[in-house]
Amino acid sequence: MTERPVKPPTAQFAEREQKAEIVDRLYEVALDPIRLEELLEVWEDRAASLRSGPVDHAVVLDDPEIDAHINRARVFLDRYEATREEGGYRLLLDDIPRSAAFVSDGGPKITACNRPAQHAFGLSDGAALTALPFDAEDVDTLRAVIRKVALGLGEQVATLRIRSVTTGSPVILRVSRIAAPGPHPLALVISTELYWPAEFSATVQEAFGLTLAEVEIVRGITLGLPLKDIAEQRGRSIETVRTQARSILAKTETHSQSELVRVVLGLMDVSFIPTSGVREVAGPGLLRDVEFQHLRGPAGRRLEFIEFGAPGGVPVLFMHLDYGLIRWPADAERQAERRGLRIIVPVRAGYGESDLHGRGTDHVQGVAEDYAAVLDHLGIAQVAVIALGADLRFALALADLRQGMVSGVIGCAAQLPLRTAAQYERMDKWQRFILANARYAPKVLPFLVQAGFSLARKLGKEKFFAQVNGGSPADMETFADPQVREAMLAGSEVCLAARFSAHEAFTRECISSERDWSALIRRCKVPVLLLQGDQDPQTPVQTIRELMDDYPRLRVEFLPATGQLLFFREWRQVLDRLAEFLPR
Fold first, then answer.
1. Taking the model in full, what pTM does it have?
2. Which element (helix H / strand E) includes 387?
3. Which residues in the chain show pLDDT less than 70?
4. Of 235, 358, 365, 509, most Cβ neighbours within 10 A?
């Protein structure tokens, strides 16, 4: 019987002086990461006593004021890599979708600006620097800083705090040098002014079931306005707006305004992923057609599966990840046939035309029973298993459910149960956004996943996959291989297609992956080999090494220049290593 999760206790900083000191260091580091050690010293002195034990029993810091400053500061940290030298300034600006930013040499006119700067500051490419909503004296100061940074005469990153003459609120500007063609050295200026696209209001309303009035309040909170100012703008009393704010927190399953802002900004990132630089390329059409077969599994549910490789060969069960990657690169499928391997790929519950499990079903147990049902239907008594990512839990659950059915498991870019919040923070943005919400805000996750799937259909799967894997150079290189791209795009049709979306199944998969399934690992009696990538954006090397101390029976090997798409890049090595796990 699954235990009900216990809500963790919370704590705040007690003294104003503690908050003020942390906030000062926070912005300094956000704008100049070289000063991180100074923040660490202060933070550890003030916050270390609030942390103890594993993530499931930790005291959670829930200080709305600190959280609000962190959200503002992370605008800079999230975009710090935008100053990398290999990109032109237009690509840099396109990669900053929600913060007002522009490029300038410190002359009379700005060189270029992004869309948020057009809305927040009223700028346009070639606009006068004096068009910024700052006092003339502040504009002159900014101009001088831009010139100094662009010419490399001072610090590589400079920070300015300027008050807007439009809103009366302080605006923090981060000025950094960029490499760009042309005779004049340039600097990138990123501000804390956020942009709320008009079309995003409808997304927020649909995702959370809010009224139009509530959406406007969410917009104001996200843009940093106090409830008093929101009330004045809307011509309502502060008590009315506070009541509406409480209703918003309940509907969004958040517990504070700062948590609400985190969820909304995460949804904004997913809804408006930049697509520049991603090119649609037609696949080579090398994959053979396969026939979908089906049976009636547990509770009479329909289960689909496919097979490829050598009919009547040594059976291998392949687990397709939460994106439904049921196909291999064409050369890999042909190699399986030459090696006498019969590859069996059940389509999991909620994918393709496989029926979802009933409400209340233990997801991992239900999936294991479905796998056993397919193998029983085919008359297969024992298989080796190749599991991608967190599908490792399904392989171990099957071995636990049916003793002797699994001869061995190879996990490719495997995910293990995480123990600390830091292990989530190491993930790349997309993976962290989905999996951290799966753990900390599971009731919100279905809306976020559905929005992401809608975006994927709008962009096309090729652009979507390129963006999701963008945090790993190895994965981007792997996805550029025509056979890999064809396999992923064709295989994922059971997850995401023009007529079909497995967003509910995907949500259930993510939530179950973030629950503690360490007991399955400890009960495991079959041999397990984990092949891990050194550029995995979801489970980096450091995280795997931390977790392996808990599971000494698991064998782990790191493969160079690989990420989450390790199997698709190194399938030859995987098949070579599979030989020791095959049924005798």
1. 0.60
2. strand 383-388
3. 1-20, 22-88, 91-92, 95, 179-183, 266, 269-284, 441, 444, 447-448, 451, 455, 458-459, 498-499
4. 509
Residues 559 and 561: their CA atoms lie apart, in Å, by 7
Give the other-Cβ count within 10 Å of 250's Cβ.
10
Contact 330, 564 (CB under 8 A): no
Of 148, 164, 144, give the one whose Cα is nearest residue 156.
Answer: 148
Q: Rg of the chain's alpha carbons, rounded to an integer?
A: 26
Look up tokens 């493969």; give the residue: 559
Q: How many residues does the chain have?
A: 584
Answer whether 413's CB lies under 8 Å from 567's CB: yes
Q: How far is CA 455 from CA 220, 267, 521, in A?
A: 25, 11, 36
DSSP-assigned beta bridge partners for residue 104: 187
Give the whole-angstrom CA distance, residue 279 versus residue 467: 12
Structural contact between residues 30 and 73, judged by C-beta atoms closer than 8 angstroms: yes
Question: Alpha-carbon distance 469 to 278, whole Å?
Answer: 12
Rounded to an integer, what distance in angstroms lies between the CA atom of residue 16 and that of residue 102?
35
| Burial per residue of 175-189, b for 16 or more beta-carbon CB atoms within 10 angstroms, e otherwise | bbbbebeeeebbbbb
3-state secondary structure 267-303: HHHHHCCCCCCCCCCCCCCCCCCCCCEEEECHHHCEE
Backbone torsions φ then ψ of 274, nearest 5 degrees: -65, 145
3-state SS assignment for residue 10: strand
Contacts within 8 Å (CB) and 24+ apart, 477-484:
477/561, 477/569, 478/562, 478/563, 478/565, 478/568, 478/569, 479/565, 481/329, 481/568, 481/569, 482/281, 482/283, 482/284, 483/284, 483/286, 483/329, 483/330, 483/331, 484/329, 484/565, 484/568, 484/569
End-to-end Cα distance, the chain: 36
Quick one: pLDDT at residue 237?
A: 94
The burial class, CB within 10 Å (0-12 / 13-18 / 19+), for 337 is middle
